[in-house]
Write a structure and sequence with these properties.
The complex is a heterodimer of chains A (about 120) and B (about 130). By secondary structure, chain A is an alpha/beta fold. Chain A has four helices and five strands, in the order ββαβαβαβα. The longest helix of chain A has 17 residues. Chain B has a single domain, classed as Heat Shock Protein 90, CATH 3.30.565.10. In chain B, β4 and β5 form a beta hairpin. Classes of the chains: A alpha/beta (about 120), B alpha+beta (about 130). Chains A and B meet through α2 and α3 of A and α1, α2, α4 and α5 of B.
């Protein structure tokens, strides 16, 4: 069971995936983020998947669900760091992460949140 | 280290293990990182189908040689309920059905060869292969 560290940076939460996650780990991450967004009154969530070497249908679905659940609680989610070979495999498999914001890396993710939360205010 | 590994697949931790072992075995043949990602993703999808629909089975990973080319074979076998309409299952992918379905068309696109045999009430076996370019 892998624990994903979630750091608070101002009004954002940054979840940095460190290793291969099981389905259960992904669900735990989803639930923790949805809960913490409320408790810490976060406006944005970044999920950093740089380290993931596989994004399969369950991971894509769970990340999408996370983004939707977080949105229902008033915060914006960005997935960052999808690697080139992972992007290729995702497209072959037909996974689009449609409706979920993605940026190249953490830095771009923070810029994106700064822009979109400014618009929301 | 042999060229064949059998991975029992019963829970979500087994999915990660099957992926890890598949990637490790395939890397012995010099697949590109893109190919390794595709192989690992295909294994993940097939293993998950076993866990979710069959409640248990196994994945066999084998390195093979065929005349001048080398590759990996992944056999995902279960004794689950079987697929009633295989033809339809081969048409319904993640992009067409949202979150439902077995992702078979996508899994087929990830690999070079794809075969499926399913008998209702007996089980399903999916065999996929990828060759080193």
């Amino acid at each position: 069971m892998a624990d994903v560290p979630i750091l608070k940076q101002g009004s954002y939460l940054i979840a940095s995936i460190q290793s291969m996650l099981t389905d259960t780990d992904l669900l735990t991450l989803r639930n923790k983020l949805v809960e913490q967004v409320g408790r810490l009154r976060s406006r944005g969530v970044i999920i950093d998947v740089t380290v993931l070497d596989v994004m399969d249908s369950f991971a894509a679905r769970t990340l999408r669900d996370t983004a939707h659940m977080v949105k229902l609680r008033g915060a914006q989610t960005v997935i960052v760091g999808i690697q080139p070979e992972v992007a290729l495999a995702m497209v072959q498999l037909g996974l689009t992460l449609e409706g979920v914001a993605t940026t190249l890396d953490l830095e771009e993710g923070l810029s994106y949140l700064n822009r979109s939360t400014r618009e929301m205010a | 280290m042999t060229n064949e590994i059998r991975v029992p697949v019963n829970s979500d931790t087994d999915i990660v293990e099957a992926r890890r072992l598949g990637r490790m075995l395939a890397s012995k043949l010099g697949f590109s990182s893109s190919d390794l990602a595709m192989i690992a993703t295909a294994i993940s999808e097939l293993a998950r189908n076993i866990v979710v629909y069959a409640r248990g089975g196994e994945i066999i990973l084998k390195l093979v040689e065929d005349q001048s080319r080398r590759g990996i074979v992944v056999i995902a076998a279960d004794r689950g309920p079987g697929i009633v309409d295989v033809a339809r299952a081969l048409q319904v992918g993640y992009s067409t059905s949202g979150s439902l379905g077995l992702g078979l068309p996508g899994t087929r696109r990830l690999m070079d060869e794809f075969e499926i045999a399913s008998v209702v009430g007996k089980g399903t076996t999916v065999t996929v292969k990828k060759w080193v370019a």
